[in-house]
Amino acid sequence: MAHVRKQIRDRIVSTLKSGVSLVQRRVHATRFYALTSDELPAITVSMVTETSAMATIGTKTMMRNASVAVDIYVRATANVDDDLDKVAVQVEEAIAGDFTVNGLAKDAVLQSTDIDFSGDAEQPVAVGRLTFLVRYITAIDDVETAR
Questions:
Q1: Per CATH, which fold does 4-139 belong to?
Q2: Does the predicted TM-score (pTM) go above 0.70?
Q3: 95-140, pLDDT tens digit by residue?
């Protein structure tokens, strides 16, 4: 098995591949290289932060709060805001449809949305980051099993 964090990330990727038709299954776990214009629109999913604390004194379980970034990449055209919003609708609805991330989490809710533009690619790109707060529990000595 793998850390519950990886299981959650993989499940969100799978959910978005089947639930966001506008990106035609171009959904990837963390990417470290630039997308080409032929690969747009696309989505990347990554865990950006996680905090944890004992769930209850004496239980040896950890309540974890992970921030999962879902980055939407679209070509920066005259319709860029509309294009980002159309994909964001599908992302939000897909994740809401799997609210507990297949039972791995207590819940997954949208925490924030940020929009930025980049001229670094071969074509200017807009990036919409939807950050979801995913709350889940593990035992302190078994981080591969969600509780």
A1: Alpha-Beta Plaits (3.30.70)
A2: yes
A3: 999 999 999 999 999 999 999 987 666 678 899 999 999 999 999 9
